[in-house]
């Protein structure tokens, strides 16, 4: 056969198992098919038979084996055994058949003989005659030496015994059995006597009990169950305790004497069979098992495979059977012995590694179990490499080196061949082998041009030889010279601890035990036991000296996984596998939630509740225990309900009586705590439901653009039951749509309507009898353009029932108690209840809640019938506001005062984002990692962990770890290997634990002498400019322009000259002004300076090492008054919690320009406060603290946090000016800026400064404010308090936002983009002197030229907790023309004069 085509070669007939007798002839059938007739041989018990000189055994022409005159004696059994047919085609290979068993029946002998017996007339008898199983088919019975004629009353069991039922006098006589095998052999004779019916009942006795059987599908099974007794016993059968249908069933038949026969056994018949014998009042039972065994069958057969030398292949083989089959593989008739290159993988598959030509041939999968065997085969053809097509082949790859050598893997890198130095279109094959072994394996690179590969699954401490071959479209080229590399030894670390076991000793503890590891030199120093709650991602660990440990403080009835790592002097060893165990259950630790009562009528009350919170159930809830009593009595009634039921109707109560109820949850361990008693009073008289409700007493409609708000009041006659209301509506007719609502509801918003359309609306009350008389109303929806009042109303509409003329008093004392990261309990009092706060009527409360971020979130509501409610499903670390209203019949209250609560923190649920890696200029072995905090921080980030490795697939505990404090968003990693790809991941941590990891980011270190390549992590087109850390210096000449192409040297130099000159001129002017100011300082200012030291700019001006003092910009509060807080009419009242900062470093400018809708922005910043908080601000002269606002010329910060920012820790109250890598700084490094931002401010600097001014202060200033200015600024935003209030804890100024220009922020930037430089900004504060010219200060800090930026909220001192996306700056290339610069300078000079005027004033 030509190479490259598979040749059909298979068995047409395979030998089957045979039962024979001595002296008989036997044929074992076998025939194989192939184009070339195969040679057939036979094996017996694994050894080839020599049939040439054998006179008894011969090979028939079709390949079958004939055995003449089978030989079999006690000591000589040459023919019994296992036979296998072997077919061979010379140039092709060999295949083997299944093995067939030849059994020879032994000499006829009886293992038990018949014995004399007696039977009552009509009863059953058993005559024993047991022989070997293979002789049983040859056994027959004789009565009075005549062959017994077959009849239904007589039955020969498979064992040989005779069962006779319904005996009559003719059955008496002598019986014997005979075996017809090589002559006939007879047993002894035994007499059967038939007795007349006895006078009294005889007790039951079992003559033949069933015994357990094992059968194959398709065979039949017989279970005897013969008993004697009087009256004649009856027999019935069950399987697995279910009655068996023996009447009329084709497969289950009840034969003579109660014997059960199962025909055509199926796998589903397996089980326990019980016969039940009954006679009078007597009963007997006997049991036996039926085991159904299944020979092996193939679910997946091996498939033919083509392959090249050095490749790895897998033959698949999937088998099933009972018992589970074992599998062995045969190649060309010989058993495959597993080795390094022939491996059994995934239970039964055969993997061949590093193919060589001699591996060609036929491979067979042979499956075998106790009841049979089967084989299936496939052919392997090894192809010669295709001859190269015409064209040049690549030369050998150059510089093959092992860049990473571990115990079990090696990373190789190389350079493309000299013939193709770019190598973009080349693929590579890496051939490798153990030294001294002639089998080469091959690994191919995954994509064209790739010049590295990771070779996995090597053996430790072994020498391997590697060579690399490049391949182009013409074919493979030259091989590189062989490279020898030895893997590292693995013995120094401990292996996994064997026999790890875990069991729960109590509901809160688990004991874990293990044994000493077998491998690893050096003594074990200690063990680390890691454990983790199932479904969580953070492992905890504990150091253990011994071989067991009990972990306590676990959650009840919760699954945990445990693993153990042994440590010796070299470090941690291999981890054990995880063992999972669930802690024991216990009684619930919390009561059921939200118990509500609904009075149904005068005799029944419906209870409804929610299960206890998930973490407190401590087991499977098996049910609930309800206790109730009359309020006037002390004794109570208990009623239990099943596990999943969450409501119960308590009936049979007395009318007009107040009852108290409480509910407790139960587990198998007992009953947990009960809820508080909740009371309700049954109705005095049952409402009438014999007729429909009357017409509702009123109906109001309020049209909006695409919706109509409908509100109503119930029918006047309250004696008829109302189950709900039906609202019909449609254009011109009310019958187009119908909506049904609850009887408690008094309002509804019909949504999705057409604008400017005439709708007719109908309202009917209904009960179980039917619908009442309708009430009609019509309304025209507003046109699209009309938006008056819409926003206001939509927010309030779904929750504000139309109040009656006499509204109820709203609940008071609303309090929010935080229970967990997603649960808050709301409690309140109701002044319209008696002093004991007992609810005796059918009132209910509505609780509503929302978070303030984002501003337009909708309220959620829930109803409660008690004075508390558990709100669940909240977001972690988020401020919520809650309010409550009460409804009783037709009357409702307004909403109560709001209560606020911030949920607890939770571990971060998203990874840090925007992870980027850049090389450090001038230090090619140092890289800088930058990132942004996670979107879902769920709390204050306290730290980050950077993981890095050269192998992206390594186990995470094999990566190198670098911890970083939480307020850093950049980190340097040093001493990396040059020209090596590394992978980086980052994980954030808060006080609750570790969050998930970011996706791996790849970065290749530079080659050393080269400058940083533009591609590696630099801010090219579309990527965000990096946050490069405090000491990062971009290259002067080749820094990238915003579009990724290096700027020409001419441009750069020109730019440098302009920037340097602007910087120098600015500094000179500022210095001159500062000196001028200092001279003219009055004594008043000197005193003030003593109290508040001069301000040092913590950011050095770029390119100059001197600190330049910007002028003090004080805003005088002496003339400002603080208005009392009043309620905002705005639908979303905005309250800004602003405690006084400890010093002005903590002051956070409020930004109203972040959002075009100023009214919807919430600003809530917090700082710690203590008694000395007024130190430099107010402590000296009893004056009101002055407030200094540095307004930064930085871009909008992407930080208005989606979660409130918690109070900052006092020890951290300082700017890390250089090192605090806030996201805003990312933008400051404009691509054209060749100098670093600044350096960190030292602690000594900070001691003298009350404020760190970032870059240039930018705000519109004024002389000291006059009374007029005080009026203008009557409602300032910002943290200040009159000096009388010396607060304990954080004081809060609740201030309502007024017109945006009245706040202390720079005016809002229109959404359209930056200011037009020609227009002066509106001044923040009114100027005092009418004639004084208005100046807008416009700063252009170098690096952000050409863009006046709105102020930025600076969150101090930690990095922002959660980001919102910010508008990216569209115009990334803009710089001043020379004439613009001249204008700018003139502008700056004017500014300085102004500043001077302020200072002197």
Textual characterization of the structure:
- This protein has 1401 residues and is mainly beta.
- The chain is built from seven helices and 90 strands.
- The strands form 25 sheets. Strands 12, 15, 16, 19, 20 and 21 form a six-stranded mixed β-sheet that branches. Strands 2-10-9-5-6 form a five-stranded mixed β-sheet, with no helix packed on it.
- Strand 63 and strand 64 form a beta hairpin.
- Helix 2 runs parallel beside helix 7.
- Mean pLDDT is 75; it is low at 789-805, 1010-1049 and 1082-1375.
Topology at a glance:
Blueprint: E1 9-13, E2 18-21, E3 26-28, E4 31-34, E5 39-44, E6 47-48, E7 57-59, E8 65-67, E9 81-89, E10 93-105, E11 110-112, E12 117-120, E13 125-127, E14 130-131, E15 139-143, E16 146-147, E17 154-156, E18 162-164, E19 173-180, E20 184-186, E21 190-195, E22 202-208, E23 213-215, E24 221-223, E25 226-230, E26 234-239, E27 242-243, E28 252-255, E29 259-262, E30 271-279, E31 282-292, E32 294-300, E33 305-308, E34 313-315, E35 318-322, E36 326-331, E37 334-335, E38 342-345, E39 349-352, E40 361-369, E41 372-383, E42 398-405, E43 410-415, E44 427-434, E45 441-444, E46 452-455, E47 463-472, E48 475-479, E49 483-486, E50 501-506, E51 509-513, E52 526-533, E53 540-544, E54 548-551, E55 559-568, E56 571-572, E57 579-582, E58 593-599, E59 605-610, E60 623-630, E61 637-642, E62 647-650, E63 658-667, E64 670-674, E65 678-681, E66 696-703, E67 708-715, E68 724-731, E69 737-742, E70 747-750, E71 758-766, E72 775-780, H1 790-796, E73 812-818, E74 824-829, E75 844-851, E76 860-864, E77 868-871, E78 879-888, E79 891-892, ...
Parallel strand pairs: 2-10, 12-21, 23-31, 33-41, 89-90
Antiparallel strand pairs: 1-4, 3-8, 5-6, 5-9, 7-8, 9-10, 11-14, 13-18, 15-16, 15-19, 17-18, 19-20, 19-21, 22-25, 24-29, 26-27, 26-30, 28-29, 30-31, 32-35, 34-39, 36-37, 36-40, 38-39, 40-41, 42-43, 43-46, 44-45, 44-47, 47-48, 47-49, 50-51, 51-54, 52-53, 52-55, 55-56, 55-57, 58-59, 59-62, 60-61, ...
